Amino acid sequence: MKNSQIAMLFGLLFLCLLQIPSSNASFSKTNPIYNVNLAPFIQRLSAYYCLQNTSSNCTGNFILSEKGWLNISNSETNAFCGELGCAQHTLEVLKCVRYVHDEYTFENGATIDNLNDTIHTGCSKGFNGTSLYKSSGTTRSVTATLYALVFLALFYV
């Protein structure tokens, strides 16, 4: 009777150990929405990798970066919003960023919602070379962002 209880205990212990995630869990750079985002710096890193997803349709100033500036002129509206344009890809990138870091703020102060509004308004009424966002009166520290990226580069690459 004791041997069967000990065997059952070891069996349950083994099953419990299988449920503990590995400390060397894979970190996806190509599909960051599958990363476990428990810490703010992991969320920021995953958002960075979302922004690194590129498309052959998006070139030059059509590529969304950490700066958050959609530098699209009125004459480029059809090229950006057209069927083979970059608008849909940019919206997917913003969706990825929202999944991994809901409160992400770009360097210019724009939020994910601001850039979504910019794309939808720009594609319907034409772009003017700027992104729509409300200034909060506070400036984001670029130095803090750079330190965070250096930290991430040292420990997660």
TrEMBL record:
Keywords: Signal. The keyword Signal applies. Residues 1-25 form the signal peptide. It holds the Pfam family DUF7731. InterPro entries: DUF7731. Residues 45-127 form the DUF7731 domain. The keyword Metal-binding does not apply. This is DUF7731 domain-containing protein.
